[in-house]
Structures are given as C-alpha cells and as structure tokens.
Amino acid sequence: MSLKQRFASGSVSYGAWTGFADPQIAQIMGRAGFDFICVDLQHSFVTMTELGPLLDALHKAGSAAAVRVPWKTPDLIMRTLDLGAEAVIVPLVNDASEARLAADCCRYAPKGSRSWGPIWRNVRPSVPEAAEGDQVATCICMIETAEGLANLDAILAVNGVDGIYIGPNDLSLSIGEERKNFGQSERLHRTILDVIARARSAGRIVGIDCAGPEQARYWRDQGVNFVISANDSDLIAQSAAAMAKAHRIPQDQASVARR
After folding, report:
1. CATH architecture of the region 3-258
2. Is 43 an annotated catalytic residue?
3. One digit per residue, pLDDT tens: the chain, 259 residues?
4. CA 188, CA 246: separation in Å to the nearest integer?
C-alpha cells in the first residue's frame, strides 16, 4: 500500500519526524512501528546532502517515507521525489499559485512539470514509470499562515494537491494568538476545526502536527487522516533522562527494592 493510499484508507496514519543526519537513527525510527516517518528538512539537522542516505535507510527498514522540504521551490520538491520520498510536505503555502507550483512539481508532463530522472535506479530493485510515479507522489501543502487560511478554499481546489497539513504553532502566531496551543486558545481551536471540515468537504486528506499521543488521539477523533506526533530528538532525550533518573533512586528505596 502506498502512503497516499494509506492516508486515504479511512484509518488514521501515525507518523514521526526524524531530524538527525544519521541513517542509523532513521532506520531505528523506521522500525519502531509508526505508519510512516517524515524526514524534516525545514527544522532539523538534515540537509539535502544527507537526504539520500536517510531515505535509503527508511527503505531498508520497510518504512513509508515522507519529507518536509525546507522551502517551496521546484528543485527541492523534484529532487526529494527523485531520491525516493512518497510524500512531500511543502511549508508555508499561502495561495493557489504556490499550491499549483508544488503540485506541478510532483507530476510528470503532461500533468505537471516534474523532470524525469529516477536517480536511485541503480540502487533499488525497480524504477517506477512516469504514470506510477504520478500515482504514488503525494503533494501535501502546509496551512500555517493567516494568508494561507484566507486562501484555503482556492488551495484545496488546485488539481494535484492531495491534501493539507496544519502547522498549529505558526498558524497560532500568524493569526495573532502568540504561540498558544489549541487548549489555550479557543480561536485557534475553532480555526483548526474549520480547516479540517473544509478539507474533508473538498475531498482532500488532512493532517496535523501534534505534541504527543494525547493530542494525536484528540485530532483523530476530529476527523484527520494523519498526524505526526513524535520526533527522534525528543524520544532520545526523554529516554535518556528517564534512564539516568532510574539509576539515582534514593538508597533507602533501593534497599527496599532488593528485599
């Protein structure tokens, strides 16, 4: 099942970010049990230089791979797909023209402007032809600005835009709510619910960035198709801190534990 099919299957897909420029960490994340892993090129330690090995590591782990590109330009979108990503998340999409550019870069001619060049053909067992590439490539536009929100219906109407991804932090900042979460801002909460409803009404898949499983479950119940609710940096930090703390229990508690 392709990532596009998984997103549209009716069940929620759970993803995690990987942001270290390390194929071994990406492979560990890919084997952890998430439905997909998204390599973050926008807010991470990863550059385009490391993207190929990271996608190859996810491929070896048997994980579906998405990529958030650092900016909404054709070179980044096309090269990301050439390196083997199934889905491209394009940040800060503000209007229909930017959405159309992103969608065109995900499709070969005559449907779009993507250039033919599957650079992994000598690395992977098979190379998808253009028609299959068009079917698999998933174009996700981020809605995270007041301008993008104002132009949401026009963005959703762009042919080739498969779905949207809500960035609550930047959206909150952009609509003047500072960096509040939806539990702290009723305005942000209502805005996100409206975006989800409009995306579903337009027949587009919709995802949202979440701070942990509790938020992920909440937005699952509000009708999203996918969430990204964990990242490798936090998981390593939390696990390391918990292990360090576990080694330092008070001596009297340790004595009781040995009895």
Report:
1. Alpha-Beta Barrel (3.20)
2. yes
3. 899 999 999 999 999 999 999 999 999 999 999 999 999 999 999 999 999 999 999 999 999 999 999 999 999 999 999 999 999 999 999 999 999 999 999 999 999 999 998 777 667 777 789 999 999 999 999 999 999 999 999 999 999 999 999 999 999 999 999 999 999 999 999 999 999 999 999 999 999 999 999 999 999 999 999 999 999 999 999 999 999 999 987 766 656 555 5
4. 38
- 43, 59, 189, 247: the catalytic one is 43
Provide CB contacts within 8 A for 33, sequence distance 6+. Answer: none
Whether 68 contacts 91, CB under 8 Å? yes
Structure-token pair, residue 157: 């109407």
Q: Is 145 exposed, middle or buried (0-12, 13-18, 19+ CB in 10 A)?
A: buried
